[in-house]
Every structure is written in C-alpha cells, then in structure tokens.
Amino acid sequence: MRNTIIEELFDQRHENVTSEQDIPISEWPRFPSFDELALEEQDLPSEEELLIQKIRRHMVYNLCGYLLYSRKYLLKCEDCLNTLETSLELLPPDFYEAIATNRKDRGGLKYCIKKMFDLFIIVEEAYRAEVELGKLNILDWFERSMETLGVLVKENKFNPTICCNTHRKELVGKLVLEYLIIRNYLETKKWLKNSVNNQSQNHCVNKLK
Fold this sequence. Notes:
Layout: H1 2-10, H2 34-43, H3 47-70, H4 78-82, E1 85-86, H5 96-103, E2 111-112, H6 114-132, H7 138-154, H8 168-208
Antiparallel strand pairs: 1-2
C-alpha cells in the first residue's frame, strides 16, 4: 500500500509542465556572481554592531518597564494593563531582553508584554532617525513615531494590540509621548555629560600649552 502511494506521487504527469530544455537561456534564473555575494557579506553587521543593537533593545525593554512604573497614573484600566504588563514566567523562554532584565532584578522591576516592546522598538528607531537628521524637538519625534506606526499598520506589517479597544486610540499616543519625554531626559543628560567632559579636556589642554 505504502509503495503504491509513493509510486503514484512520483508518477504524476502534468501536461502544462515545461522541461528546462524548452526554456530560452535568457529566461533561466539568474544566480548572483562571486562579487555580488562578497558585497552582500560586507553589508552584514559586524559583531560590534550586533552588540550595540542588543544593548539598545535591552535599553528599550528597560524603558518600557520604567514607563509602566512611572506612568501608572495613565493605566487605571485593568484591561489595558493586562495587555502591557506581565511576569517573567509568562514571557517566551528565549526572550533575551526580559532575561537580561531579570538578571539585575532585586524586586520591583516591571516586565512588559512583547507586543508593547515591539511597538516601542519602532518608536525608538523613529526617534533615532530624527536625531540623526538633527531634529531635537519632542513633537518632531512624536509625529515621526506616529506616522511610522500608521504606515506599518496600514501595510499590515504591525498590529498594535496593546491597550483595550476603548482606550487604545487615546492611550497609545500618550504612552509614545511619555516614552519620548523620558528618552529626551536621558539623552539630554548624556549630551550635558559629554559637553562637560569636552570642556574639561579643553581646559587641561590649554593648561599644558
């Protein structure tokens, strides 16, 4: 019986099948050259770039947890909160960002659901794109973030299913804005620190002259 099924499977004939000999050479599939493959290899991120990406993703996850902690006055709806906050045990076992957070948890850290994390990864990328263009206004960051999310939703590439149906439209925008306010605070601290360090270095150099 088993042999009969296998024979029938491999013995099927389709009238519309064309052999390779009947296909013109110009229509044969094109395979990349060695040089093209080498260029693709160069485009792959280095180990340092991969490490930076991992650190940034971990930072976003921590900021999501801080957002849940510091902006809890926005999250009065239990249904909304259930789509945002979770426990480590309920997250995927291979979710690196949550595992990294757990390593430094001494009690009290918040764990966000992966859907929330995915949304704020998009917001973080939009924020960085604006900063690289020299735009340092929170409203610019907010507009870029919401436009990016809107395009992805329209193209069915992302579905922001955080927050309940009643509060989603209002609350997602508020959480994005609050994230960017926190992000601006952290970035400003970094800029000020770098500025002070540069001034100190210049002062030392001037003393040596």
